[in-house]
Amino acid sequence: MRRISKKEHILYSLHHSAKIYFLLSVLTMTMFFSHPINTVGLFLVVLNLIIQLKMMTMWIKSIKYLLYLSVLIFVVNVLFVNTGVTVLYRSEVIPIIGSIQISLESLVYSLMMIIKLITVVSVFIIGNEIMDSDQSIKMFARWGRKPVLMIILSTRLYPLMKCDYERIAQIQRNRGLNINEGNIIQKVKKRVPLINTTLLSSLERAFEIAESMHARGYGIGKGSLYKNTKKRPRDYIVTLSIFCAMGLMLVIYLMKISRYNYYPKLSLISMESIMFQIALSVLLLVPLFLDWGMKKWQRFRLKI
Description:
This protein is mainly alpha-helical. It has 14 helices and 2 strands; from the N terminus they run H-H-H-H-H-E-E-H-H-H-H-H-H-H-H-H. A hairpin with a 3-residue loop joins strand 1 (87-94) and strand 2. The model is unreliable at 1-6 (pLDDT under 50).
């Protein structure tokens, strides 16, 4: 995992515990709610965060890989789930398959599942952008420094190997070797040396990391911290808004407002569900309101 640079948005400057609480709350609500108003509302919250963080280009590049899975979800629900009563299209009888029936309920359900999937993936994209590996280690090291270090090293292994492979492949192309020419067997044979070199580079990096940790005295005595991050008013404000949002989620569940039936017929959307989702979105967007105030008033920025 790479080290992020200092950026101006408030989400980058929050305490790591506040960041984790915020991401977990949005992820929990996305998985918990099945009501279309809640699903769309949470997606808009996450999309607004992505726009404010200026991650739209990176987000589009990451989300495009979900296209195939989204198409699969859409096809399976629309073509093979025939429990909806609002029929939009019914084909003639097809041998073996039978009659294909497309209903409004299956269309809405497929769309909501795709939006929920994109929201979940987007939360992880935001987390990867605003979280720092050093902060994660400091957050969880109290329960086990060595397991956390192993997780951090493991998660950064694949991106580094990918960069090494692309760098080695570019060197080979500069030397006149086109690894994309020929049939499948020839392409595999041309890539074998690249894979071997990539593995050797990874092993060398592992030895260098081990030597560096040994030279710095890792594992000898109690671990020390170079920097102790203190909580500021902005962290308490964001954390309070998160707990209020989680409490509101519990109220929505107990009042049965979040219940919604897609099959056999779509349930009606009540005004209560819309109002509660607006309140929930406002609580989740508190970091954006704070960021706006910090940019508008210098004194407010210094206070929080």
